[in-house]
Write a structure and sequence with these properties.
Number of helices: 1
Number of domains: 1
Largest sheet: 5 strands, mixed, barrel
CATH architecture: Beta Barrel
CATH topology: OB fold (Dihydrolipoamide Acetyltransferase, E2P)
């Protein structure tokens, strides 16, 4: 089973990219502090579709989020001919764990929203239960 759950702060503002096919993806990084330590682990993250749009529109650098996803390995050949690879967490579900600043709140808030914990899943329906975090 390939599954990962992380809670951390965004290391940079999410970058939302659109493709000619109509698909979209948001990319960022996530800083996760190790328990009982001053060390921080950094993860490359990306979210597709509606989940990515939520990540890009309602979070920014420093926002505390919880994610569920899968770890993938991206590989590519550099200009010098060497192969490179990196781990990327593909987000399936994101939970906003902080109250959103007023300028980032949606104009119409769904009735089921809980400002402290709003969860969105990658199946195109939002919000959903945030009980996992």
């Amino acid at each position: 089973m390939n599954s990962i759950m992380l809670v951390g702060r965004l290391g940079r503002d999410p970058e939302l990219l659109f493709f000619t096919s109509g698909a979209s993806v948001a990319k960022s990084s996530l800083a996760v502090k190790r328990k009982m330590s001053d060390e921080t682990d950094w993860f490359a993250i990306e979210a597709w579709g509606k989940t990515g749009e939520v990540l890009a529109n309602y979070t920014k650098k420093g926002t505390l989020i919880g994610i569920e996803g899968q770890v993938t390995v991206e590989t590519w050949k550099g200009q010098n001919g060497e192969f490179h690879s990196k781990l990327v967490v593909k987000i399936l579900r994101v939970t906003l764990l902080e109250k959103q600043p007023r300028e980032m709140q949606p104009a119409v808030v769904p009735k089921t929203a809980n400002f402290g914990k709003i969860a969105y899943s990658n199946n195109g329906h939002a919000p959903v239960s945030s009980s996992a975090f």
